[in-house]
Every structure is written in structure tokens, then in C-alpha cells.
Amino acid sequence: MGTIYLIRHGQASFGSHRYDCLSALGEQQARVLGEALRQRGLRPDRVLAGGMQRHHQTAAHCLAAMALPPSVQEDRRWDEFDHEAIVAALQPRYRDPAALQADLAQAENPRRAFQALFQQALQRWMSGTHDGDYAESWPAFRARVEQALLSLRESLSRSQTALVFSSGGPISAVVRQQLMLGDAATLRLNAVLANAALTKLIYSERDLYLSTVNEHSHFEAAPALLTYR
Predict the structure, then answer these.
(1) Which residue among 20, 39, 84, 136 is the one 20 to 30 A from 158 at the CA level?
(2) Over the stretch 68-111, which tens digit does the pLDDT of each residue have?
């Protein structure tokens, strides 16, 4: 049996104009994950990442902690959905990021306020009744991720191990496919995927199986490192 680990990126820089970069905490999360994987003796045959900075930065810090070279193959099919476009489709004035930041600044808890807005925007995107409002619909996004996973599995030899540095959306889509979840359950899962957490798949010549979801035991000794956004 071979193994594919899907790794959510470390914490990004919420509230910053450089959101796609890891925060200092996100960098630390990636290093702690890498150390945990090194202690397991994990030696990947393939390392992939989506095309976003937070994917590549998470990979770099994780691989450094594993004492491995920063050799990463980019596959943009593992990119996250466009959360800014999805939010703007719900509230057109948020096409201007400054308008969103100004509204969030007025909230008692900006992170919680954004999460509530984001969940509402995702529900609209996933509903299937407004697909024409989006450059990439929810079905198209799922198909992209499913093709990325299929291509990876077909490229791996028997008993190989791959690491994929990606985001919560693609990982949720994979779990949805494996467990045949509905959209509501997928949305709930996406909300609780931890930064720098592992989702493990095992594969044979004929099939692919979900083994673990959202594993983050490497943060148990330092609970302050556990974040979801």
C-alpha cells in the first residue's frame, strides 16, 4: 500500500494585504509538523504543492525540519478556491478589499465576523443556484481537485509516499468524495480543518482509501499552535 498525505498550510496572515504569506505562527506550525514527520521516519518519494505562497512556504519550513531538500513539484490544481471572489459575489461592495477590512474593523471580533460572512458566502457558492456568478463553480472546483488526486495516484508506484501541501477547500473536497458527504457536512468539515494538519490516504493498485482526517496531534504539547484560520 502507498500513502498520500494532504497537508493544510500553516496559518496565513489574516487581515494583512499579504494574506497569502504565512504568519510567524504559521511558519512555526509548519516546522513543528516537519519535526513530527521526521520523528516518524517519513521519507516522501514525491512532494507537491499548490501554486499559492502559503503552500510553498509551508512546504519549505516543513521539509527543512525534516532535514530534506526543498524539492517541490507545483500543481495548481491543488490551489484553494478564490475566497475573495466568493465573498464579493455575496456582497459586491467587498470587491474592494478596503471595504471589507473597514467593516471587519468595526466588529467586536473581526475573525469571528469574517468567519460568519465566509460561511454564508460559501453556502451561496455551493448551492448550485448561482453558478453563473463565479469564474469557478463548486462542481468545477471539485472536479479540478478530483483530477489532481487521480493524476497523483496514477503517477505513484506501489508503496510510495507523497506529501501534498494544499488548503482546506481541496482537502475538504477529497474527504467529501471519499466519504460521500453532502455539501452541508463538507462545509462543517472545512470550518474545522486545522492549520498544518494531516489528512492521510492509502492506495492500492485498484483503489484509494481515506485513513485519517485532520490529524493534529503534533500540537498537543503546544496547544497555542492549534489554529483554524
Answers:
(1) 39
(2) 998 999 999 999 999 999 999 999 998 888 888 888 888 888 88
Question: Helix or strand or coil: residue 194?
Answer: coil
Q: Could you tell me if 82 and 95 are in contact, meaning their C-beta atoms sit under 8 angstroms apart?
A: no
The 3-class secondary structure across 142-162, one letter per residue, is HHHHHHHHHHHHHHCCCCCEE
Name the maximum alpha-carbon separation found in the chain: 54
Q: Which of 99, 111, 130, 144 shows the shortest CA–CA distance to 13?
A: 111
For 47-64, how does the pLDDT look when each residue is reduced to its tens digit (9 = 90+)?
999 999 999 999 999 999
Spatial separation of the C-alpha atoms in residues 89 and 28, rounded to whole Å:
34
pTM confidence score: 0.93
**C-alpha–C-alpha distance, residues 153 and 226, integer Å:** 30
